[in-house]
Amino acid sequence: MHPPLDRPHPDCQPEIDALRHCHATESKLKFWACNEIKSNLDECFKQEKKRMLQQLNANLEETKNIEQAQAALAFDRKETFQEFLAKDKEYQKDLERERLRQQQGGSWFSSFFS
Fold first, then answer.
1. Can you cite an annotated GO cellular component (predicted)?
2. Under 8 Å between Cβ of 2 and 16
């Protein structure tokens, strides 16, 4: 399956046109006739999605910090959630326990049966 072809895909338009032409000209009984073109289209969509995700996530850390600061202001707090967790002794203890467990190669499942 592929995404709808009627929305704009400027990077993949040649592949879309080729697939539409193949579907229009090839027999419906030869269902494998357009496989290579479809494969090229899938690869193009994969590259398009990768590029779009890179654009969306380009300034993710900065946006996250801004949102946390705004949330702290909204809830009348002087520190962000990350700063709160850094000071929370119980959380730090649990975090260290988890790090040690992962270094030893155990899973959360095995902790119930040991």
1. mitochondrion
2. no
Q: Measured in Å, how far apart are the chain's first and last C-alpha atoms?
A: 45
Report the alpha-carbon angle 23-26-32, nearest 5.
85
**Average pLDDT, integer, range 18-47:** 89
What's residue 44's pLDDT? Answer: 94
Q: How far apart are CA 79 and CA 89, in angstroms?
A: 16
- When the pLDDT of each residue in the chain is averaged and rounded to a whole number, the result is 84
Q: What is the pTM of this model?
A: 0.53
Torsion sign (Cα): 21, 27, 28, 31: negative
110 pLDDT exceeds 60? no
Q: In this predicted structure, what is the pLDDT of residue 104?
A: 84
